[in-house]
């Protein structure tokens, strides 16, 4: 692990972000060397959130390097039914719209982003869990209120995986005392997702128009207070 990461005298400890630089200098307690012309490197801080494996599942935060996984999951019209009426996502949409969107709220230190869910023991990709502040894309994101979402391959529906994964992630992130709520939204006809919300201990709050840069959607809103 690097003890210190320095770019022209600017120290990076607490942020995850993409940088474009001509020269970086790596400093550690045991070595010092220079690397020239490194383009498009992703910096992840040392204190990133780690979600431990649960009974059947394992986790890691996804990045824009996971395009293939996102694409494969979005090809089933039933998976997309309550997202956009059942239209599979194109690779171009994923690369040009959804990946920049994902990276805009991914934060390794806070555990925000999309958590890849793998099925043990082979770490087979079966879906993801979304974590980000509610109203993230508005002028007033709710950093004390984390939105949870989920999407899984249909072959893995009805087995409790979404509930297990969301519970494990929620329990880990609730250690942060600044987090007061976990919330989720869904189409009111998406009874499967609503069932998961209830299993997570969330209660119905309201029906409302969920506003998003990709389009506003009528939704039901469920929420759980952290203990």
Automatic annotation (TrEMBL):
> What is an example of a GO molecular function annotated in this UniProt entry?
acyltransferase activity, transferring groups other than amino-acyl groups
Carries keyword Protein biosynthesis?
Answer: no
Swiss-Prot/TrEMBL keywords:
Transferase
The UniProt entry, under InterPro entries, shows:
Acyl_CoA_acyltransferase, GNAT_dom, N-acetyltransferase
Q: Where is the N-acetyltransferase domain?
A: 57-227
What is the name listed in the Swiss-Prot or TrEMBL entry for this protein? RimJ/RimL family protein N-acetyltransferase
Query: Which source organism does the UniProt entry give?
Result: Pleionea mediterranea
């Amino acid at each position: 692990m690097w003890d210190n990461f320095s770019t022209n005298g600017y120290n990076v400890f607490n942020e995850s972000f993409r940088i474009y630089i001509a020269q970086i200098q790596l400093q550690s307690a045991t070595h010092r060397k220079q690397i020239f012309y490194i383009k498009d490197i992703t910096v992840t801080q040392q204190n990133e959130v780690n979600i431990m494996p649960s009974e059947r599942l394992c986790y890691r935060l996804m990045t824009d390097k996971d395009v293939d996984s996102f694409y494969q999951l979005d090809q089933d019209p039933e998976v997309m039914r309550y997202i956009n009426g059942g239209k599979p996502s194109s690779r171009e949409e994923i690369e040009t719209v959804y990946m920049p969107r994902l990276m805009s709220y991914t934060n390794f230190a806070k555990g925000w982003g999309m958590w890849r869910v793998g099925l043990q023991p082979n770490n087979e990709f079966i879906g993801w869990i979304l974590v980000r502040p509610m109203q993230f894309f508005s002028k007033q994101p709710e950093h004390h209120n984390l939105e949870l979402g989920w999407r899984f391959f249909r072959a893995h529906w009805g087995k409790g995986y979404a509930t297990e994964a969301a519970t494990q992630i929620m329990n880990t992130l609730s250690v942060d005392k600044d987090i007061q709520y976990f919330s989720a939204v869904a189409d009111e006809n998406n009874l499967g997702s609503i069932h998961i919300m209830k299993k997570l201990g969330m209660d119905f709050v309201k029906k409302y128009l969920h506003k998003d840069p990709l389009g506003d959607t009528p939704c039901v809103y469920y929420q759980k207070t952290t203990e």
